[in-house]
Automatic annotation (TrEMBL):
It comes from Larkinella terrae. Pfam families: TPP_enzyme_C (PF02775), TPP_enzyme_M_2 (PF16582), TPP_enzyme_N (PF02776). Residues 10-116 form the Thiamine pyrophosphate enzyme N-terminal TPP-binding domain. Binds 1 thiamine pyrophosphate per subunit. This is 2-succinyl-5-enolpyruvyl-6-hydroxy-3-cyclohexene-1-carboxylate synthase. One of its GO terms (molecular function) is thiamine pyrophosphate binding. Homodimer.
Length: 579
């Protein structure tokens, strides 16, 4: 039997439960875990030196697979570098299985290298932390390790999904001898069956009655993956029942004749009469966070009488401060059943829908006005600024591709622009914690996992903060990176608070003179820089084709960017107030 047979069995158990991908950051204490994964015939392993980047690359992969990805690092401060990705995975509900090597507890605080307090190091940002024994002489220790590993893997892939941590103390020797043969298993698989989710008939009748008594209904979709079945039933509800459906760009609710995607534009109006017309009696939400601050402020100030949140688990969140029912149901199944039941009930009773059709018309009219206004504003080529650049980039994206949007201004710009349904673009963003760390690494992880073209749209600060995402030999050919370089954290000049402070330049924007050219060269990416609409128009057609990953750097002026955004806000107030 191998010295660290329990590690071999852990890897075998993961493989038997369907986990096939692992990201490994090199280290010596973690050698038994690394070798067990690298030599397993059913595991695909990749090495990433920077643990912070490794965490987000694993997150990007798990985001695509919707299955846990194993994340491995050595002991000591290396573990802390995983924390940003772990927190993002927790709040975005992405499944990760984190395996951290550790020294036995005997050596904590004994001036031994790479030894820190690793037990439950991620605190509340994991679904649960497990710790294996350091010694396995007794059969109970082997039984415990096997049971705990079963539980950890199942917990990571049980809704709400999220990261699960296993801390593994390892004694020396860490490496097998030349003639040592590694054997996996046998292992005992504990199968955890899913509970059947069904609401009692009485509860469904209550929901139907509440639905029927509400005149003005609004359905709002938070962040989530592209789901054709969900979009189909929502389109049917919107079309046949005249109910407005609202979504952000990260909701993957595309722009079409039915859905409301420009609410952030018209809800920024100060006209309370308009907002009173938009107030729902019944709000139904599903998905995770919303980008639009205006949408959140609107619903907090104009609260519905009833608010249902539909989700497949019981973790309660109340961002609009109006929640009255948390309904544990898979959203697509819920809306399909709701539509079917109510439609049948109306057919049997020969009862036509008496919903306020003017309510949807009000939402859709404002949405169409906002779409036209933003499009017209961004079409003007007299001034070169980053928001207009983003609109041109979105128009040029390959059909049926992925867009990974970094936080700060890029995700806000993209949300204000929107994407048309016929573009078939899947949108991803790290909106669990909304940090700029790891945005590029997440896109790299996604590109490693999907065959679709992946475009990472990222600001200069987020790019340089995470350029170690490119410090590896794994950059896939389907990756395209677009860096918006205004040489500062330009969002602080655009939002009201910091823009009025005398410390803006030195302590908020933190100007930098860097270019992405050398980073692209080091990573073996094709590189091009543009500073005008003419150069952008010439660069875009060829940028998305070819057999090599590429980087397009777009340099703009921060003062011009801020001035154009202020001009847009003034135009919104003037145009809608005039109407």
């Amino acid at each position: 039997m191998a010295i660290h047979q329990h590690v071999l069995n852990l890897v075998e158990l993961c493989a038997r439960k369907g986990i096939r991908q692992a990201i490994i950051s090199p280290g010596s204490r973690s050698a038994p875990i690394t070798l067990a994964l690298a030599r397993h015939p059913n595991m695909t392993t990749r090495a990433i030196a920077d643990e912070r980047s490794a965490g987000f690359i694993a997150l990007g992969m798990a985001q695509q697979l919707r299955q846990p990805v194993i994340l491995v690092c050595t002991s000591g401060s290396a573990v802390y570098n995983l924390a940003p990705a772990v927190a993002e995975a927790f709040f975005q509900e992405i499944p990760l299985l984190i395996l951290t090597a550790d020294r036995p507890k005997d050596w904590t605080h004994q001036q031994d290298g790479q030894t820190i307090y690793q037990t439950e190091i991620f605190g509340k940002h994991v679904k649960r932390s497990f710790e294996l024994p350091a010694d396995f002489e007794h059969a109970d220790a082997r039984w415990f390790a096997e049971r705990a590993t079963n539980e950890a893997v199942d917990l990571a892939r049980t809704e709400p999904f999220g990261p699960v941590h296993i801390n593994i103390p390892l004694r020396e020797p860490l490496y097998p001898t030349v003639d040592e043969r590694l054997g996996y298993g046998p292992v005992r698989i504990i199968e955890q069956l899913k509970s059947a989710s069904a609401l009692p008939a009485e509860t469904w009748h209550q929901l139907q009655n509440e639905w029927e008594t509400a005149d003005r209904k609004l359905i709002a979709i938070g962040q989530g993956p592209h789901d054709p079945a969900l979009l189909a039933v929502l389109k049917k509800i919107s079309d046949e029942w005249r109910i407005p459906i609202v979504g952000d760009v990260i909701s993957n609710v595309p722009r079409n004749q039915e859905f409301i995607t420009q609410s952030d534009v018209f809800l920024s109006l100060s006209d309370e009469k308009i907002k009173e017309k938009l107030k729902p009696d019944l709000l139904i939400t599903c998905g995770q966070s919303f980008i639009s601050k205006q949408f959140k402020l609107f619903l907090r100030a104009h609260q519905p009488e009833s608010h249902w949140q539909i989700q497949p688990h019981n973790r309660l969140a109340d961002p609009f401060q109006s929640l009255t029912r948390l309904i544990p149901y898979e959203p697509t199944v819920f809306f399909e059943k709701l539509f079917s039941d109510i439609d049948y009930q109306r057919f049997v009773s020969n009862d036509e829908d008496e919903a306020d059709t003017g309510f949807q018309e009000t939402w859709q009219k404002l949405d169409r006005q906002a779409t036209r206004l933003v499009r017209q504003f961004l079409k003007d080529d007299a001034v070169f600024h980053e928001w207009a650049v983003i609109q041109r980039i979105l128009d040029a994206l390959p059909v049926d591709s992925q867009l990974h949007v970094a936080n700060s201004m890029p995700v806000r710009y993209v949300n204000l622009c929107g994407l048309d349904e016929n573009q078939q673009i899947e949108v991803f963003a790290n909106r669990g914690t909304s940090g700029i760390d790891g945005c590029l690494s997440t896109a790299v992880g996604a590109a490693l996992t999907t065959e679709k073209p992946v475009t990472a749209l990222i600001g200069d600060v987020a790019f340089f903060y995470d350029r170690n995402a490119l410090w590896n030999n794994l950059i896939p050919a389907n990756l395209r990176i677009i860096v918006l370089n205004n040489h500062s954290g330009n969002i602080f000049r655009i939002i009201d608070g910091p823009s009025r402070q005398p410390e803006l330049d030195a302590y908020f924007e933190t100007e930098q003179p860097l270019s992405a050219e050398n980073t692209a060269k080091d990573a073996g990416l094709t590189y091009r820089k543009v500073t005008s609409y003419q150069e952008l128009e010439a660069a875009l057609p060829g940028f998305f084709v070819g057999e090599w990953a590429g980087l397009l750097e777009i340099e703009t002026d921060k003062m011009t960017n801020a001035a154009q955004f202020q001009a847009y806000k003034a135009l919104i107030q003037k145009t809608f107030n005039a109407d």
